[in-house]
Amino acid sequence: MYAPASEMPDDPAASHSPQSRSAERTTEGPSGFAADGSTDRFDPHRVAAFSDGVMAIAITLLILDLRLPSTIARTDAALQAQLRALEAPFVAFVLSFAVIAVWWNSHHRLFAVLVRGDRRILALNMAFLAAVVFLPFPTSVLGRYTTLPTALVLYAGTNVVIGSAALLMWWHAERAGLLAATSIPPSCDG
After folding, report:
1. Residues 39-65: pLDDT tens digits?
2. Do 111 and 129 meet the contact criterion of CB atoms below 8 Å apart?
3. Sign of the CA dihedral 128, 129, 132, 134?
4. Distance of CA 94 to the CA centre of its chain
5. Residue 10: pLDDT above 60?
6. Which pTM value belongs to this model?
7. Which of 39-43, 70-74, 131-135 shows the lowest per-residue confidence on average (mean pLDDT)?
8. 139-169: per-residue pLDDT in tens?
């Protein structure tokens, strides 16, 4: 199920040299996979870097909901009242920041042990990222309508979709032999 050590390159840096990359391009199909359909050209580092960028944008979008009105009385009491009004959106921001950080950590752990890929792992990764990018919207709804069940269901449902995509990525990577052999606990490989 996993590639034997003999199939692993002796020098990982050599497989990323300009000469080897140009040789790879000649056998690569338009999708970035080898022309014969194999997944030897999959670069988990590129996918992880793209995913890191998408998650960084999603986590940044969370802050956009925390704004003071442009027209408030210029008194300390008025400012304090406006800041208190932002309490629920601020709590939703902190919660979602932590949630995205947990999802990022899970994703990081997977891609740290992913040695090969296929179209299915890429599709699952895109579904995962789409749900993460959507998370600022339910966060905004939850921050504005804290007491309404629909806001909580939307927020929780989005996290269920994210978690399901993450679980499916791990499950598929293990079943398809995309993980490094050393990533499997000793009790599971025999």
Report:
1. 556 788 899 999 999 999 999 999 998
2. no
3. negative
4. 18
5. no
6. 0.73
7. 39-43
8. 999 999 999 999 999 999 999 999 999 999 9
**pLDDT-derived band of residue 116, with 50, 70 and 90 as boundaries?**
confident
Instruction: Please determine, for residue 16, whether its predicted confidence score (pLDDT) is greater than 60.
Output: no
The phi, psi pair for 34, rounded to 5°, reads -60, 150
User: Are 116 and 177 a contacting pair, CB within 8 Å?
Assistant: yes
CA 140 to chain centre: 20
Amino acid at 108: H
Query: Which single residue is written with the structure tokens 């890429």?
Result: 122
Per DSSP, the residues of the chain read: ----GGGS-S-TTGGGSHHHHHHHHHHB-TTSSBTTS--TT--HHHHHHHHHHHHHHHHHHGGGG----S---SSHHHHHHHHHHTHHHHHHHHHHHHHHHHHHHHHHHHHHHB----HHHHHHHHHHHHHHHHTHHHHHHHHHSTT-HHHHHHHHHHHHHHHHHHHHHHHHHHHTT-B-GGGS-GGG--
Amino acid at 189: D
Chain centroid to CA 2? 24
- Cβ proximity of 115 and 3 under 8 Å: yes
Angstrom distances, CA of residue 29 to CA of 22, 24, 47, 115, 151: 13, 10, 17, 20, 44
Contacts of 40 by beta carbon, 8 Å cutoff, 6+ apart = 34, 116
